[in-house]
Amino acid sequence: MVIPVFDEAESLDPLYGELVDALEKIDEESEIVFVDDGSRDDSLRILLTLEAKDPRVRVVALDANAGQSAALDAGFRAASGEVIATLDADLQNDPADIVRLLPLLDEADVVNGIRTPRNDSLSRRLASRVANAVRNRVTGLEVSDIGCSLRVMRTRFVRRIKLYNGLHRFLPTLLAMEGARLCEVEVSHRPRRHGVSKYGIGNRLFVSVGDLMAVYWMQRRALRYGRRV
After folding, report:
1. For 192-216, what is each residue's pLDDT tens digit?
2. Tens of pLDDT along 176-190?
3. What residues contact 144, with CB distance under 8 A and at least 6 apart?
4. Is residue 226 domain-resident?
5. The domain that contains 86 carries what CATH number?
6. Most buried in the list 28, 31, 111, 201, measured by CB within 10 Å?
7. Predicted confidence band at 122 (pLDDT cuts at 50, 70, 90)?
8. First vs last Cα of the chain: how many Å apart?
9. CB-based burial label for 80 (10 Å; 0-12, 13-18, 19+)
10. Taking Cα atoms as reference points, which of 74, 83, 86, 73 lies closest to residue 19?
């Protein structure tokens, strides 16, 4: 699992408990990679305490707040398994859902969550609906909830992509460009218990327009060829 963390100190202990419960239901050897994205609260100290007591926990600490794309990229580079799961650290995602998503990798390479029902404000739900519709129209890839952070992916496809700032919002699209097969499944979405959201309409909907154009360009200019010998 790769989990970006930015100022989520109050959520980390209960999140860790839920992650441990989920790992006990997974037969394969697992790891939890927490990436502290320059937190200003007590997050890093708590993460290092968890790492010291549990060999499955690995902590990557960025030297300054670099954003979610950078945190995910650092986590992907640190992860060692054949499958990578991602989720948010704010407790809105339920780690138990990962156990349901993993078997679907028998038929797909990326299993993306659909938050059902959304426990966000009306303005955020509307912004997300508009953004999803525009992204799907431009990219030609139907993803019901591209903003859902809870997903599982085959690592070999994750290794092929190169992330830039903001492009974590397009992970399913970037993976599909590398040949990954995508499926979707409904997952839980719980009310936020602690802290505040790091995103709003201004930095989610409007800023991502430029990112969308970049992804559109990448799709159109991607190298596509095969070899006969």
Report:
1. 887 666 555 555 555 578 899 999 9
2. 999 999 999 999 999
3. 112, 114, 132, 184
4. no
5. 3.90.550.10
6. 111
7. confident
8. 38
9. exposed
10. 86
**Count of domains observed in the chain:** 1
pLDDT digits 0-9 by tens, 128-144:
777 778 888 888 888 98
pTM of the model: 0.88
Is residue 32, in this structure, part of any structural domain at all?
A: yes
CB 181: neighbour CB atoms within 10 A? 14
**Could you tell me which residues come within 8 angstroms of residue 37 by beta carbon, excluding any fewer than 6 positions away?**
4, 5, 6, 62, 65, 66, 67, 68, 70, 71
Structural domain containing residue 9: 2-221
Is 211 inside a domain boundary? yes
Average pLDDT taken over every residue of the chain: 91
Residue with tokens 């998503």: 101
Q: Tell me the pairing of strands 151-154 and 83-86.
A: antiparallel
Full strand arrangement of the beta sheet holding 151-154: 57-61, 32-36, 2-5, 83-86, 151-154, 110-115, 182-187
Task: Tell me which residue of 170, 184, 18 sits closest to 88, measured CA to CA.
Answer: 18
Higher pLDDT, 193 or 35: 35
The answer to whether residue 120 scores a pLDDT higher than 90 is: no
Q: Is 83 in contact with 152 (CB distance < 8 Å)?
A: yes
